[in-house]
Amino acid sequence: MPLWLQGALESAQAALISALVVAVPICAVWATAGFLNGAPDVLARLAGQAWLLIHGVPLLLDTAGIGSAAQPQSGVLSLAPLGLTLIPFLLAWRAGRRLARASYTDQLWQALLGSWLMYAAFGLTTGFVCRTDDVGVGLWSAALVPLVPFGLGMVIGARREAGSWSRLIGVDAVDWLARTSQHSRWAGSYLGSAIKAGFVALMAGLAMSCVLLAATLFIHWNLVIAVYEALDAGPLGGAVLTIAQLGFLPNLAVFALAWTSGAGFALGVGSQAGALGTAVGPLPSIPVFAALPAGSLDYGMVALVVPVLAGTLAGWWFLREGENHFDEWLSIKIRARWFTAAVSTLALGVMIGCVAGLLAAGLAWLARGSAGIGRLTEIGPDPLRTALFVAAEVGIGVVIGYAAGPWLERQQKLREADLEPASL
Questions:
Q1: Are 291 and 408 members of one domain?
Q2: Residue 69 confidence class, pLDDT cut points 50, 70, 90
Q3: Quick one: pLDDT band at residue 360, thresholds 50, 70, 90?
């Protein structure tokens, strides 16, 4: 089979499977008479619109005649459930591994091109068919935006199967680095380690924020259950509502990171929820919103320690990596060790903090969006504000972690020596 055709078949399979996964809960709600209009064509368009939304395609809503006159007559639904976006991503990851296994190094582009063209055509067709008077879809967006999660998953899957980027794209990175100067290799190692440390800080902060999110859900579980009981959606309706909330779980994790950093996040125009205080207006009856800490938080500033601890771990990790070539270069130029150590550590904190801030801004941009109706046209953290808060707090933690790293290493070696059996 030609590689371009095999790539097209793999992407068609992934598109159909993801569409079926989206259609199943819609059919379940239809089976319980949950829709006012249960016509097959209406349900098919709704499933197509949901498929586009989980890929990040914004939907143009026309709310004329719905609700009060204070509500806008049109809006954009752009709040994508990142948890459900993992479905096409994982399917693309699987397809990328299969295509890499079937291709030589210099032929993989044929399979990738065929798969991406097929997926873009599927998105374009879905957007064209599923447009209605109430829900508009930009055809260019429907064709190109789904390629972002799908293409990313396919490239990562192909890289996983190939084992290295050199085998994937046919470029020997080791040979290319060998032709550069020693100073360039040192600078590249320093920057590469700083970027990795920034990623470590972001992941550590995100993990600790998820722990706090789980804790607040557990503490306010009775309020969450009360909202479920008030909705009285029945077993199937409650299950669909729970699946929808699980789809937004990655978004909530990013919201929790912004909350712990002090930057906060919006739940409607003019609202702000953060560790320094929460002031939001009326919210829709969604159970997870009942777990939101409200009012003046006496000990909210304690949560700001989370990004600092994440930066401390990143600073310690960078010390163990042993790639602080800027400190080595500076100590050669200037003999005052107290000065070079302070300057290099501060520079390291600024660099890793900036990397973590940029990554946090990217997550905030992905997690935020608009529900398209009323006040809920602004949901999620502000990317710039989140980047500034995370960068500053992670930078402080990096300085602490790198400075305390030698002591932590010495304590760890002492513990390992105590655990070793005594020699006879």
A1: yes
A2: very low
A3: very high
Distance CA 56, CA 82 (A): 9
Asked if residue 266 lies in contact with residue 379, where contact means CB atoms within 8 angstroms, the answer is yes
* Residue 229, phi then psi, degrees to nearest 5: -65, -35
Closest CA to 359 of 210, 196, 208: 196
Identify how many contiguous H helices and E strands the chain contains and give both numbers.
16, 7
The total domain count for the chain is 2
Identify whether 424 is part of a domain. Answer: no
pTM of the model: 0.87
Q: Provide the residue type at 19 as one letter.
A: A
Do 171 and 285 meet the contact criterion of CB atoms below 8 Å apart?
Answer: no
Q: Are residues 248 and 364 in the same domain?
A: yes
In a shared domain, residues 49 and 79: yes
Record the tokens describing residue 69, joined without a space.
């006159």
> 132: domain range?
3-177
pLDDT tens profile 2-57: 888 999 999 999 999 999 999 988 888 887 777 777 788 888 999 999 999 999 99
Note whether residue 206 is domain-resident.
yes
User: Is the same domain home to 328 and 279?
Assistant: yes
Could you list the beta-strand ranges (E) of 121-260: 135-137
Mean pLDDT of 340-357: 91
**413's tokens:** 């070696």
- Total count of residues recorded for the chain: 424
Q: State both tokens at 344.
A: 């290099």
| Residue-wise pLDDT tens digits, 167-223 | 666 655 556 556 666 667 677 788 888 999 999 999 999 999 999 999 999 988 998
Q: Are residues 139 and 262 in the same domain?
A: no
Residue located via tokens 């801004």: 361
Asked if residue 112 and residue 14 are part of one domain, the reply reads: yes
Give residues with Cβ within 8 angstroms of 274, minimum separation 6.
258, 259, 262, 263, 264, 265, 300
Of 177, 210, 230, which closes a domain?
177
